[in-house]
Design brief:
The chain is mainly alpha-helical. The protein has helices at residues 6-16, 31-39. 0% of the residues are buried.
Amino acid sequence: MKDPELMPAVVRALDREGITVGELALRRSSLDEVFLALTGHRAEPGAPEGDGGATVREEENEPRKAVMRP
């Protein structure tokens, strides 16, 4: 993380607003998130392998995660 004060600032802001948080985690971006940020779209499912295309497999019932970026 580039700013070690970011997570404490987020916690303080949530506390100020009276928002109760059950769990808070910091993690690196996934390859899919980086691809989306760079290209503006998701990798297409089932793209042929070996041509530089990426394959995205989404599981049913897989929980979605919220990601906070500065």
